[in-house]
Specification:
The protein is of the alpha+beta class. The protein contains 4 helices and 6 strands. It is 30% helix and 38% strand.
Length: 126
């Protein structure tokens, strides 16, 4: 189930600036650092992220049609701040949640099912 677009707009301008203060340090959260595909401006987007074999899995709560995801795809990757460490990430690929259940741990997989997330972004740790 995708969260409403209205909530995405509120998060972009209200919640995300606050989450950027702590999201890179807490389990289950991270910050994707990416560059605007048109502007070249650097951005930092808080996300729900979990370790996965060879990299990370980001739950796409608002679906795959997000600007930050388009920026990652256009540049082939970016950086991810997770649990206080910064990782170079590449090969962004959107996979259905059913496929993500195969590589996620028990806790994140249960959360994925409970929240009815449709898609997951898989990132390779460089």
């Amino acid at each position: 189930m995708r969260l409403p677009e209205r909530l995405a707009r509120i998060n972009r301008y209200v919640t995300n600036p606050i989450q950027r203060l702590w999201a890179g340090r807490l389990p289950g959260f991270g910050i994707v650092e990416h560059t605007g595909r048109r502007s070249g401006k650097p951005y930092r987007t808080p996300v729900n992220v979990y370790a996965a074999p060879g990299g990370f899995a980001v739950m796409l709560m608002y679906g795959p049609e997000r600007d930050w995801l388009r920026n990652l795809a256009a540049s082939g990757g970016g950086k991810l701040v997770h649990r206080g460490r910064t990782y170079a990430v590449t090969n962004p690929s959107v996979v259905p949640a059913s496929e993500a259940l195969e590589f996620l741990g028990k806790g994140p997989a249960a959360l994925l099912r409970q929240l009815h997330v449709e898609y997951v972004l898989r990132l390779t740790s460089a």
